[in-house]
Amino acid sequence: MGDGWPAGERGMGARTGAALLVTALVAALAGRARACGKTLTGVEGGPPTPPTPPGVGSPTDISVDDANMVKAANFAVVKYNMKSNEAYLYKTERIVTAKQQIVNGVLFYIEMYIGKTECRKTGSEQLESCAFVSPTEVKHCNFKVLTIPWKDECTLLSDTCSSIR
Questions:
Q1: Domain limits at 25?
Q2: Do 122 and 44 belong to one domain?
Q3: Do 106 and 127 fall into the same domain?
């Protein structure tokens, strides 16, 4: 008969149960392997690996107006201000490019210009209400920010800024 079992083994409940268990394990392992971006070798008839969604594995361009990226950029500027030895605060002048990469969270790569404000670093100013100094002193910065939204965590992984005017 066409059930795939040798004639002498048809109807053997223990073997059928074991075969179903092995089939279920192979399917589970194949699913796990696909989740890692790989296919399980040596398994015939397994489903193909689905294409990797955009943003997973490698950085992809995103809009400079993306709400989560803007939050990450603001966080980066606040951390930059805390770390710098300058007496005045800097704030975002313009975001040039933004990329995101899905890792164990979302990793943002942000290229932006920040400008020096008239607000001193006393901790009481609202950065948004601080006016730029005139003439504006500007820095070109590249920030890398890791966000883990489900834990409400942000970490500034790197910042590189250089004065341009």
A1: 1-50
A2: no
A3: yes
Q: Which of 150, 141, 114 is nearest to 130 (CA)?
A: 114
Percent of the chain with pLDDT over 70: 65
pTM (predicted TM-score): 0.65
Span 68-96, pLDDT tens digits = 999 999 999 999 999 999 999 999 999 99
| CA–CA distance, 70 with 92 (Å, rounded to integer) | 10
Position 91 in a domain = yes
Looking at the domain assignment, is residue 77 inside a domain?
yes
Q: List, edge to edge, every strand of the sheet that includes 105-120.
A: 60-61, 88-103, 105-120, 138-148, 153-163
Segment 32-53, tens digit of pLDDT: 332 222 222 333 444 544 555 5
> Is residue 126 situated within a structural domain?
yes
Helix (H, G, I), strand (E, B) or coil at 58: coil
CA angle (28, 56, 24) in 5-degree steps: 5
The reported pLDDT for the residue numbered 32 is 30
**Residues 90/139, Cβ–Cβ less than 8 Å:** yes
